[in-house]
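Encode chain A's predicted structure.
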Amino acid sequence: MKFTDGYWMMREGVHASYPAEVLDVDAGPGSFTVHAPVQRIRHRGDLLKGPVVTLTCSSPMRDVVGVTVTHFAGTRPPRPEFEVAADPDVDAAVAVDDDAVSLTSGDLTVRVARGDEWRVDFLAAGRRLTGSGFKAMAIIDTDEGRHYVREQLDLGVDHFVYGLGERFGPLVKNGQSVDIWNADGGTASEQAYKNVPFFLTNAGYGVFVDHPGRVSFEVASEAVARAQFSVEGQSMRYYLIYGPTPREILRKYTALTGRPARVPDWSFGLWLSTSFTTSYDEETVTSFIEGMAQRDLPLSVFHFDCFWMREFQWCDFEWDPRVFPDPPGMLRRLKDRGLRICVWINPYIGQRSPLFEEGKARGYLLKRPNGDVWQWDKWQPGCAVVDFTNPEARQWYAAKLDALLDMGVDCFKTDFGERIPTDAVFYDGSDPERAHNYYTYLYNQTVFELLRKRRGEGEAVVFARSATAGGQRFPVHWGGDCESTFEAMGESLRGGLSLGMSGFGYWSHDIGGFEGTPDPALFKRWIAFGLLSSHSRLHGSHSYRVPWLFDEESVDVLRHFTRLKMRLMPYLAGAARQAYGEGLPMMRAMVVEFPDDPACTHLERQYMLGDDLLVAPVFSADGRVAYYVPEGVWTHYLTGEKVHGGRWVRERHGFDSLPLLVRPGAVIPEGAVDDRPDYDHADGVTLRVYELADGARVTTEIPAPSGGGTAASFTTSRDGAAVRVAAQFAGGADKPWNVLLAGVDSVARVEGGAAAEHAHGILVRAEGPQIAIYLEDR
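Encoded structure for chain A:
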């Protein structure tokens, strides 16, 4: 939200007051409060005037400082509030002298000057990260009686801002106006399904505005050298998080707001959907599944979209008896094929659903101020909204899903949750403005916790569209309704990278696009992108997404990339462990991994998948692609060709290829199974070693199938011409394993294994727990 008319004036009807100096300081253990009048105090008469800005600083955990800016403190306690963690043992030191008051937590210090000019500085590692100076912090009133709190933090010339949720515009947010307000707006506009009031910078810090309602960001837009954020109300709290790297910022932000949960291995396989408005029954579903099997296409999950229920009765959670007369039998038959089952749900109840009267009678639906059920005709006639602030309503809703789990359903696509009214009354008295975004947190939490209770830790997964801060705890999330165009494919990738820089570890999208029907070229290019994403789903709107309906080459391309992903599962499981263990996204913008490379600052058409794989989707039918390669000698994973980095590369790829490059010095574990994701990833694993430097030492851990431990650990090192690999399997197991020295033509000798030529180098089959490979002198 913009308040000014250019640099000098305020907009008509807008009046701002700015803290001018520190009047006094209240310092206590681990926090301090300053009172700052909005005019200089020249004599006692000035002490009779207001306003006074109250600024409180504290620290919930190391390297994180919380700042609360308050005008009037007599407002009711806000509801709802984000769940924010705090470390009771955090050591935050407060210092007060004549020049300043400061608080230091870990390596981060916030300092408020007590001199002639108001100034707040954030300092770390001997430098100023950012700060709030002249006319930056403000309390603002309008002639219409509205009240806002605003803050502006300085941005340096080379400082760039990322995040703010899943946003489909440019990855770098500088120059943008962003309102944190969930909307069902597709992927082609400034609206977003997943709004998160958190941004990170390449300047060593991130900022989380602890307000679940509308937060307005002006990022180098209203004030081009500042990142501005404001909320309507009398108080605003934000946290400044010191990294210094983007990876560290994400680790600390997710420690504050919650880490993504561990998801089951089977969820990384290929998901096939009925699509949205297509006509289908058990015969149709079976024909799709049999068609996949006949074409040797690995399939892990089958998804039933909305019309598994009767029209106008969404949601009643009952199978349409006209097309599914025997749901338990059908699900049993599908599961006998080794499939998991997902069904579509949403938090809305149409008037014709039997659950409408039930929810109305029990008070489980949002109400209008006069006590009526809140209803409208968008989406479903007479549509009402489940009130998840009511604990009984949550139990009621979960019980309906529980019956489906008993029947054989494994997971749910938790669609919608964005169109939450602000003229409704919530059971717990929540402020509708604050509840609008937060609603999706309660919705997905209700479903995810049911699945976790029924299936166990690490076995719960949803396919969610809406989210806000903290929603990363309930994965997986997908990108929403995109068109079937290359432009929408690019929008989707930007959205996913932006979401990853907002604390979300997993992300997916509709392969081929949702709206419309992709042409075969687009479909095949999107397949490669989709199978090199965290999660992979074939889904559309009014047309099926089985590949043989496009062309036979689509079948081959889908087989190729699905089996590639299955072989990459040992590597992907390790990247997933970083997601739930550290808060690092599986799909990462290049700047996350290479923050010191200026060329990576704006890159949004490529990404890192985990630590070591660079993926550059092809956004053209003819296969032409341009991408940037950081310094070092990288290797094409699919061909073994080397690429010297520090430059842009232009290539042309067939439909069965795309730029998939391995980082120099990487050890990529490749599995021995390519027809399913949930297998023993350590059994028969091949460690692919790339450009290992002299003196390097790399540890590779293979998570156990349950995800609760480590199945195997390998240490790869190089000392001169000797490359050594030591293996340790859980429980002292003895399993086959291999080492591939990529790009090596021959070796002098091998100890502990047998060497053979390979298309990409020298393959050594281990004969015990250790291998030593001696390279030939060159």
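The chain is about 20% helix and 30% strand.
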